[in-house]
Amino acid sequence: MRLFDLHCDTLYEALARGCDFDNPDFHITPRKSSFISPYIQCFAICVPEEITGERATMMFKSAYEKLLEQCSKFDIRIIKSFSDIKDVTENGQRGAVFTVENASVLAGKLENVYLFRDFSVKLATLTWNGRNELGDGAMVSHSNGLTPFGIKVIKKLEEYRITIDVSHTSDRLFYDIIKNSSRPVVASHSDSRIITNVKRNLTDEQFEIIKKRKGIVGLNLHRDFLNNDIEKASKYDILRHAEHFLSLGGEDVLAVGADFDGCDLPADIRGIDSMGEIYELFLKNNYSETLVKKIFFENAYDFCENFDK
């Protein structure tokens, strides 16, 4: 099978633990994913909210060095442009896209956005769940949305063709981003709020806006986002979220953003090695193979043509 996954926290875990990607405790390892070809994985550096200022910037730089080291060690190609994605796909290889989860790594300095450009960052959330110099995340009560600094950062990100990721935004921040941006946005790892009522999931209106912007939405496998009763969460809930998004016309929007190594999985999902089973689950539930291929790979691939435009 082919897979393009918009989000995982494996890079952060490897950096934090000082270990390689082949740690058997990880949801994603080179060995566990060996059945996937081609395989393009977005590796996020998620900066904890207690790490701020220059410490956050240094952590970002260390993460990039770690990614380079691990890609070299495990024969993974660093994605710097759409042409890289095209080559990886045509040759059945593995590719790594560097992404940022929590732009506090900028340390409040607009000039630091050049680091995103120079380190080939392709997707960036402005916040995690709390408040930083750019705006308010999903769990902030009485959110104020974007700050003046956040507005400047958006303009610079768009200038550098770095896609804004609206997963982890508060509702107010989401609409402020839409108001102050013009390019497509993504929700790399968010499910439907109609199906599971948590703030990290998308409302129907938000999904419609992303669709209108020609963005994409990655299905998240975190059990808390899949089912209102987390003890009952299962891989079958993924179908419920997919079916709802598809009912909104999401055939060209829906993708995978599993959140491996950054989430608590349902009991019937082990990690990346369960993706084949999930793929087959879609097929067994009357999804056409054409549609399943779009969700698992092609929609993300097609979206990434924006990287170079």
Task: Give a written overview of the molecule.
With 309 residues, the protein is of the alpha/beta class. It has one domain: Metal-dependent hydrolases (TIM Barrel, Alpha-Beta Barrel). The protein has 11 helices and 9 strands. The strands form 2 sheets. Strands 1, 2, 3, 4, 5 and 6 form a 6-stranded parallel beta sheet that branches. Helix 1 (10-17) crosses helix 2. The mean pLDDT is 97.
Quick structural summary:
Helices cover 38% and strands 13% of the residues. The chain is an alpha/beta fold.
Secondary-structure blueprint:
Blueprint lengths: L2 E6 L1 H8 L21 E8 L6 H21 L3 E2 L3 H9 L3 E8 L11 H6 L2 E5 L22 H12 L3 E3 L5 H9 L6 E2 L16 H9 L3 E4 L3 H4 L8 H13 L6 E3 L18 H10 L4 H15 L6
Parallel strand pairs: 1-2, 2-4, 3-4, 4-5, 5-6, 7-8, 8-9
Helix pairs in contact: 1-2
- The tally of domains stands at 1
Task: Give the overall silhouette.
Answer: globular
Series of H and E elements: EHEHEHEHEHEHEHEHHEHH
Beta content comes to 5-15%
Q: What's the architecture, going by CATH?
A: Alpha-Beta Barrel
| Class per helix and strand makeup | alpha/beta
Question: What's the main sheet like?
Answer: 6 strands, parallel
Oligomer: single chain
- Look up the CATH topology: TIM Barrel
pLDDT < 50 stretches:
none
Number of helices: 11
CATH hierarchy class name? Alpha Beta
**Corresponding CATH superfamily:** Metal-dependent hydrolases
Radius of gyration: 18 Å
